Amino acid sequence: xxxxxxxxxxxxxxxxxxxxxxxxxxxxxxxxxxxxxxxxxxxxxxxxxxxxxxxxxxxxxxxxxxxxxxxxxxxxxxxxxxxxxxxxxxxxxxxxxxxxxxxxxxxxxxxxxxxxxxxxxxxxxxxxxxxxxxxxxxxxxxxxxxxxxxxxxxxxxxxxxxxxxxxxxxxxxxxxxxxxxxxxxxxxxxxxxxxxxxxxxxxxxxxxxxxxxxxxxxxxxxxxxxxxxxxxxxxxxxxxxxxxxxxxxxxxxxxxxxxxxxxxxxxxxxxxxxxxxxxxxxxxxxxxxxxxxxxxxxxxxxxxxxxxxxxxxxxxxxxxxxxxxxxxxxxxxxxxxxxxxxxxxxxxxxxxxxxxxxxxxxxxxxxxxxxxxxxxxxxxxxxxxxxxxxxxxxxxxxxxxxxxxxx
Length: 407
Description:
This protein is an alpha/beta fold. The chain has 2 domains: 6-80 and 93-174, HUPs (Rossmann fold); 182-358, Argininosuccinate synthetase, chain A, domain 2. It is 40% helix and 19% strand. It is built from 12 helices and 14 strands. Strands 3-2-1-4-5 form a 5-stranded parallel sheet, with helices on both faces. Strands 10-9-8-13-14 form a 5-stranded antiparallel sheet, covered by helices on one side. The longest helix has 20 residues, at 298-317. It is elongated, with a radius of gyration of 25 Å. The model has no long low-confidence stretch (mean pLDDT 94).
């Protein structure tokens, strides 16, 4: 690799990238453009911009990606019911392809010749960033400091010492060394005291959600409207995607909703413990499923649900910009065409319960389902033939001696 002259660093102002900005300058004698993707980290953006300037960035570019993040990434993942290993709503994973796409845009805008990131050689983010960069700019040069032979800051303590030596303020301390990632969908915590999966997360660690034990004693009810699988309104008020998710984060956080403590399987092969706060996303997933339950054909839902784990895996592993993801997304979009309706939710002390659902074009027919007089909408005697036909292969198997009922 030729010595880079101008590097675009995906910069967050966290521990790793705060250090890496200065390290890139010292190691490669190159200009460093600090690229900050605003995907909903809120008040962190402006301090990060100023810190990048103070640390010596030749230019700082902030891109407001909040609307695109929710509209083009969060909502499509939700429509697919993409949940990794049955629990994780992909808060970090889903943001990485958008951030990396913006980084390639900045590379082109500034005439830079390289990109860099702060992901470690043990994690998933290195894969997510680099797969996206290479998919969008196949010849791009990528500098990954944690995998660079010149990198000697291979512990949190060494990095904190480097920061202190260069007068770089950092958001972690030796007493609280866990790392955080925040966007409009979630807040994640990894490392430090959390590396022992037996340790309970400290009470003072959580920032988005109230402890469910201290949440309000009165339930809060909301209604969420969906059109073609996409949330469009809250309590009858139409809202932009990022505003709707922000409001649900507030309501969910206040009621202690969305805390998850899991050990997950990283793409690189190891297991990792992570603690996540996803208040608004937790509500949306449950509400979306409720509307699907009365608007979505049974067999279409079954096919979509069989694809959901694969879609979640593709997102988690960094293959957002892949041909298989395009094909699966096309199926999901088709499956969602009739998912239009309203879910009523009850938020209470960490619980998010569906208490009502309705749709103008509902597949739920009360005249057929009722235990009362159905006025001839359903002939119960039809079930006799239905059952006997489905039992035919079972009866034949038994007569042939393959099944005795004692296996």
